[in-house]
């Protein structure tokens, strides 16, 4: 039987990063993955394929809507070849997952293909083509999550689908009904909207992106409406019925009236659930809480002292970069180091266009905590860079402590917000004040000037270009 210092169960961004860091720190490491490709949800059916389709559909939309105003005449019809678009997405996925194979080899990590399940706290059975058993002094559970649904919905994976099927449709829906106006629903909704579908979003909460800053959610709502999204907040879905090729969704609106949506596809994007099926966690003494998450302490250690858990399968934001930070954290803890993660500074991003990005506290959270704060907000349309590319929607909002001026939160909607948020993370990591950021030179013309201007606005209303 092969014996390891560390076995990692699950090869998503949490698991494979944990394995690499363990190997870098000199531990003999194994990784177990039940699928034939490494990379987990993120690389196979999450972050990477969704961004590939967002990019392709963005090019198409630019061609049909914006090339002309840029002075580019396209003679003849511009058409979508969905099969090719999906094939390109798959080749991006294949290259990326192949890259993880390379990294495992480079770091001398043994890869086992099969379902990992605990025999006891130091032995794992791997059920793949053959059945194997390995011994591990320490184990890191990184088994991730799966799409969740509502109890009355039958996901048939043909017309009533999850994000996984939405990434490989064979036709552009005529009318896509999206249940859930969170990140995944809006991103995939925008892909098919750009490709020509009518898109109706049905959201239970009183606004889309309900966990983000309300100002940001309002701005994106406005922009999506301009893009002709049909957004229905405060709608409680009560039935989803498939009749032939039609899907009928019934919901109650705020007034308690029944509203019916008829479409040809329904994307159920109501969240994800932690995944521990088949893991046999009890055999190792690992507790699962009533939300289905592996319970961990502040060191990400489970109720079994030699077993740790990271990523989507534990509490906290279900984000690839959060899982990665936790992977490194556990590897370094096992090596006797004292790592640290500031969960307040894990940024959240929505890759619609315009993009949405945020870090730190929202206005709602600051109000609830009774913190006195200042707001500096700057519209993207006031930037020369925005006018050059005609990306005029959105704003950057900086929230700073009223007394100390320390930046407490940064929220933005706009072109390239996903990349710009890194500046806010760095500033907040170093506990910068709004004035610190406002006094740093930002290249002109760039979208990042909106951060400087919003910081100026927060520092005594000193924005220069509004
Ligand atoms: P996962 O990536 O879910 O990996 C877990 C792995 O464990 C899987 O490969 C699974 O097969 C394997 N496994 C499970 N049980 C066993 C077992 N018993 N034995 C062996 N193997 C097992 N996040 C972002 O940060 N940015 C984005 O842009 C983004 N976009 C997304 C878009 C979509 C459509 C979706 C669905 C998700 C997106 N996410 C995004 C979320 C992101 O994918 C997850 O947060 C991330 O993958 C979690 O990583 P993880 O390592 O915890 O688990």
TrEMBL record:
Catalytic reaction list: N(6)-[(R)-dihydrolipoyl]-L-lysyl-[protein] + NAD(+) = N(6)-[(R)-lipoyl]-L-lysyl-[protein] + NADH + H(+)
E.C. no: 1.8.1.4
Keywords of this entry: Disulfide bond, FAD, Flavoprotein, NAD, Oxidoreductase, Redox-active center
InterPro entries listed in its UniProt record: Class-I_Pyr_Nuc-Dis_Oxidored (IPR050151), FAD/NAD-bd_sf (IPR036188), FAD/NAD-binding_dom (IPR023753), FAD/NAD-linked_Rdtase_dimer_sf (IPR016156), Lipoamide_DH (IPR006258), Pyr_nuc-diS_OxRdtase (IPR001100), Pyr_nucl-diS_OxRdtase_dimer (IPR004099), Pyr_OxRdtase_I_AS (IPR012999)
Pfam families, A to Z: Pyr_redox_2, Pyr_redox_dim
Residue ranges annotated for the Pyridine nucleotide-disulphide oxidoreductase dimerisation domain, each copy included: 346-455
Domain of life: Bacteria
The keyword rRNA-binding is annotated on this UniProt entry: no
NCBIfam families tied to this protein: lipoamide_DH
Family membership noted in the UniProt record: Belongs to the class-I pyridine nucleotide-disulfide oxidoreductase family.
Name of the protein this chain belongs to: Dihydrolipoyl dehydrogenase
Upper classification of the organism: Bacteria, Pseudomonadati, Bacteroidota, Flavobacteriia, Flavobacteriales
Gene name of the encoded protein: lpdA_2
